[in-house]
Amino acid sequence: MSELLPLFPLGSVLFPGALLPLHIFEPRYRLLVRRCVEREQPFGIVLIRSGSEVGPAAEPHGIGTEARIVGVSPLADGRSYIVTRGERRFALDGIVPDAEPYLVGRVRYLDEREGEDASGHAGEALEALGGYLVAVLAVTDDARGERALTEELQGVAPVDVAWRIAGSMAVDPAEQQSLLEMANAADRLVAETRILRRETELLGDLLVRLRANGERQELN
């Protein structure tokens, strides 16, 4: 059964459980945020398929994530900074034309399924994540606050592991959207393992080049 949900099209993807800070400056989105805060209601974040974040309404992708406002910092000129947390995924059944200055969609919330052998795939993904974080540290000397992530995720349900890994990877929005749209955690974990191994290999190649140029010292 469809429900109405205000929508905020962005050039980035929000995953369930992840935090996303936003700068709210356009009048239509100031109104959206003010209403959501006053009514203690969520809105939907959808990746832009075509168009832009500023100006005329953009065309969104068909799968998005419900966003709950968990922090607001208003500014004197009416702008604000907010922090949102991803909650349920939804499928966009259609846009309600001219309902509000911002987009309003008819949405169906999606079930989170584990899929076949999700626990086994979670183990492989966590192993790949550990290698990726080591490679990040080797190249940047900064594990971006995630050095303990693999330990934190031991014993966690595969659905939640998949979402935490998705939120930890610096990949382009199209690839993030592909992960968001997958039907179950097992498929998502398999894809994440492939991406993590690919990114680890790229970081290894980068480290070799940096060392060859004398820009990065060998680690002890």
Task: Please write out the topology.
Elements: E1 3-10, E2 19-24, H1 27-39, E3 43-50, E4 59-60, E5 63-74, E6 80-95, E7 103-109, H2 118-140, H3 149-152, H4 158-168, H5 173-181, H6 185-212
Parallel strand pairs: 1-3
Antiparallel strand pairs: 1-7, 2-6, 3-4, 3-5, 5-6, 6-7
Helix pairs in contact: 2-4, 2-6, 4-6
Number of helices: 6
Number of strands: 7
Major sheet details: 5 strands, mixed, barrel
- Estimate the helix proportion, in percent: 40-55%
Describe this protein's structure.
The protein has 220 residues and is α+β, with helices and mostly antiparallel strands. It is built from six helices and seven strands; from the N terminus they run E-E-H-E-E-E-E-E-H-H-H-H-H. The chain has helices at 27-39, 118-140, 149-152, 158-168, 173-181, 185-212; strands spanning 3-10, 19-24, 43-50, 59-60, 63-74, 80-95, 103-109. A five-stranded mixed barrel has the order 1-3-5-6-7. Helix 2 (118-140) runs parallel beside helix 4. The longest helix has 28 residues, at 185-212. The radius of gyration is 19 Å and the shape is globular. The N and C termini lie far apart (58 Å). The mean pLDDT is 90.
